Amino acid sequence: xxxxxxxxxxxxxxxxxxxxxxxxxxxxxxxxxxxxxxxxxxxxxxxxxxxxxxxxxxxxxxxxxxxxxxxxxxxxxxxxxxxxxxxxxxxxxxxxxxxxxxxxxxxxxxxxxxxxxxxxxxxxxxxxxxxxxxxxxxxxxxxxxxxxxxxxxxxxxxxxxxx
Length: 163
Fold this sequence. Notes:
Elements: H1 4-21, E1 25-34, E2 37-45, H2 53-70, E3 78-82, H3 93-98, E4 103-108, E5 117-125, E6 130-135, E7 138-143, E8 147-152
Parallel strand pairs: 2-3
Antiparallel strand pairs: 1-2, 4-5, 4-8, 5-6, 6-7
Protein backbone atom coordinates (compact mmCIF):
# COMPACT_ATOMS: atom_id res chain seq x y z
CA UNK A 1 0.00 0.00 0.00
CA UNK A 2 1.76 3.07 -1.22
CA UNK A 3 -0.74 5.83 -1.87
CA UNK A 4 -3.09 7.45 0.60
CA UNK A 5 -6.03 6.35 -1.60
CA UNK A 6 -4.93 2.71 -1.38
CA UNK A 7 -4.51 2.94 2.39
CA UNK A 8 -7.87 4.70 2.69
CA UNK A 9 -9.64 1.98 0.65
CA UNK A 10 -7.94 -0.72 2.73
CA UNK A 11 -8.95 0.95 6.00
CA UNK A 12 -12.55 1.35 4.80
CA UNK A 13 -12.74 -2.41 4.16
CA UNK A 14 -11.35 -3.18 7.61
CA UNK A 15 -13.24 -0.55 9.61
CA UNK A 16 -16.71 -0.66 8.02
CA UNK A 17 -17.67 -4.14 9.32
CA UNK A 18 -16.54 -3.20 12.85
CA UNK A 19 -18.62 0.00 12.81
CA UNK A 20 -21.65 -1.80 11.33
CA UNK A 21 -21.40 -4.51 14.00
CA UNK A 22 -21.94 -1.75 16.58
CA UNK A 23 -25.12 -0.60 14.79
CA UNK A 24 -23.68 2.40 12.94
CA UNK A 25 -22.61 3.05 9.39
CA UNK A 26 -19.54 4.75 7.95
CA UNK A 27 -20.79 7.90 6.25
CA UNK A 28 -17.31 9.01 5.21
CA UNK A 29 -13.74 7.86 5.79
CA UNK A 30 -10.82 10.07 4.90
CA UNK A 31 -7.09 9.60 5.36
CA UNK A 32 -5.05 12.79 4.89
CA UNK A 33 -2.05 14.81 5.98
CA UNK A 34 -2.41 18.21 7.62
CA UNK A 35 0.71 20.16 8.63
CA UNK A 36 2.80 17.01 8.39
CA UNK A 37 0.52 14.93 10.63
CA UNK A 38 -1.50 11.94 9.46
CA UNK A 39 -5.26 12.05 10.19
CA UNK A 40 -7.91 9.37 9.89
CA UNK A 41 -11.32 11.06 9.93
CA UNK A 42 -14.41 8.87 10.14
CA UNK A 43 -17.94 10.23 10.03
CA UNK A 44 -20.52 7.80 11.41
CA UNK A 45 -24.29 7.80 11.39
CA UNK A 46 -27.32 5.64 12.10
CA UNK A 47 -29.47 4.61 9.15
CA UNK A 48 -32.03 7.14 10.37
CA UNK A 49 -29.49 9.71 11.58
CA UNK A 50 -29.11 11.14 15.06
CA UNK A 51 -25.57 10.53 16.32
CA UNK A 52 -24.66 11.75 19.79
CA UNK A 53 -21.30 12.78 21.25
CA UNK A 54 -21.38 9.60 23.34
CA UNK A 55 -21.84 7.50 20.18
CA UNK A 56 -18.76 9.13 18.63
CA UNK A 57 -16.72 8.59 21.80
CA UNK A 58 -17.78 4.94 21.95
CA UNK A 59 -16.80 4.23 18.33
CA UNK A 60 -13.59 6.25 18.72
CA UNK A 61 -12.53 4.01 21.62
CA UNK A 62 -13.46 0.82 19.73
CA UNK A 63 -11.58 1.91 16.60
CA UNK A 64 -8.61 3.25 18.52
CA UNK A 65 -8.14 -0.08 20.30
CA UNK A 66 -8.58 -2.01 17.05
CA UNK A 67 -6.22 0.17 15.00
CA UNK A 68 -3.55 0.17 17.72
CA UNK A 69 -3.69 -3.62 17.88
CA UNK A 70 -3.63 -4.17 14.11
CA UNK A 71 -1.10 -1.38 13.35
CA UNK A 72 -2.31 -0.97 9.75
CA UNK A 73 -0.76 2.47 9.25
CA UNK A 74 2.65 1.71 10.77
CA UNK A 75 3.04 5.37 11.75
CA UNK A 76 1.47 7.72 14.28
CA UNK A 77 -1.91 9.16 13.30
CA UNK A 78 -4.73 11.15 14.78
CA UNK A 79 -8.13 9.44 14.82
CA UNK A 80 -11.21 11.65 14.55
CA UNK A 81 -14.69 10.15 14.84
CA UNK A 82 -17.68 12.46 14.46
CA UNK A 83 -21.15 12.91 13.00
CA UNK A 84 -21.68 14.27 9.50
CA UNK A 85 -23.90 16.89 11.12
CA UNK A 86 -27.39 18.08 10.29
CA UNK A 87 -26.10 20.51 7.63
CA UNK A 88 -24.38 17.80 5.61
CA UNK A 89 -25.00 17.69 1.90
CA UNK A 90 -27.35 15.07 0.52
CA UNK A 91 -25.59 13.39 -2.38
CA UNK A 92 -26.94 9.89 -2.88
CA UNK A 93 -30.40 8.34 -2.98
CA UNK A 94 -29.49 6.73 0.34
CA UNK A 95 -28.94 10.22 1.80
CA UNK A 96 -32.39 11.30 0.60
CA UNK A 97 -33.95 8.14 2.06
CA UNK A 98 -32.43 9.07 5.40
CA UNK A 99 -34.27 12.42 5.40
CA UNK A 100 -37.57 11.17 4.02
CA UNK A 101 -40.42 13.21 5.48
CA UNK A 102 -38.13 16.13 6.32
CA UNK A 103 -37.76 19.56 4.74
CA UNK A 104 -34.80 20.10 2.40
CA UNK A 105 -33.34 22.77 0.13
CA UNK A 106 -32.39 21.79 -3.44
CA UNK A 107 -30.19 23.78 -5.82
CA UNK A 108 -30.19 22.69 -9.45
CA UNK A 109 -27.29 22.24 -11.90
CA UNK A 110 -28.89 24.83 -14.21
CA UNK A 111 -27.83 28.43 -13.73
CA UNK A 112 -31.51 29.40 -14.11
CA UNK A 113 -32.12 28.49 -10.47
CA UNK A 114 -30.08 30.73 -8.18
CA UNK A 115 -32.32 30.17 -5.14
CA UNK A 116 -33.06 26.72 -3.75
CA UNK A 117 -36.41 25.02 -4.06
CA UNK A 118 -37.74 24.03 -0.66
CA UNK A 119 -39.91 21.04 0.09
CA UNK A 120 -40.40 17.81 1.95
CA UNK A 121 -38.90 14.55 0.69
CA UNK A 122 -42.01 12.46 0.08
CA UNK A 123 -40.48 9.58 -1.83
CA UNK A 124 -37.57 8.10 -3.75
CA UNK A 125 -37.71 6.31 -7.11
CA UNK A 126 -34.58 4.18 -7.06
CA UNK A 127 -35.13 2.85 -10.60
CA UNK A 128 -35.46 6.32 -12.13
CA UNK A 129 -32.87 7.87 -9.77
CA UNK A 130 -35.34 10.53 -8.67
CA UNK A 131 -36.26 12.27 -5.45
CA UNK A 132 -39.93 13.17 -5.05
CA UNK A 133 -40.21 16.57 -3.42
CA UNK A 134 -43.50 17.84 -1.98
CA UNK A 135 -43.56 21.61 -2.59
CA UNK A 136 -46.21 24.34 -2.32
CA UNK A 137 -46.82 23.92 -6.04
CA UNK A 138 -47.28 20.14 -5.77
CA UNK A 139 -45.13 17.04 -6.06
CA UNK A 140 -41.95 17.53 -8.06
CA UNK A 141 -39.87 14.55 -9.27
CA UNK A 142 -36.21 15.62 -9.36
CA UNK A 143 -33.59 13.47 -11.11
CA UNK A 144 -30.51 13.12 -8.89
CA UNK A 145 -28.25 14.13 -11.81
CA UNK A 146 -29.95 17.56 -11.98
CA UNK A 147 -29.22 18.37 -8.33
CA UNK A 148 -26.18 20.60 -7.79
CA UNK A 149 -26.56 20.66 -4.02
CA UNK A 150 -29.16 19.57 -1.44
CA UNK A 151 -29.23 20.04 2.33
CA UNK A 152 -31.66 19.37 5.13
CA UNK A 153 -33.44 22.53 6.23
CA UNK A 154 -32.56 23.75 9.69
CA UNK A 155 -35.03 26.11 11.29
CA UNK A 156 -33.51 28.34 13.94
CA UNK A 157 -35.83 30.63 15.82
CA UNK A 158 -34.71 33.40 18.09
CA UNK A 159 -36.87 34.72 20.92
CA UNK A 160 -37.72 37.83 18.89
CA UNK A 161 -39.21 35.66 16.12
CA UNK A 162 -41.57 33.78 18.42
CA UNK A 163 -45.19 34.82 18.49
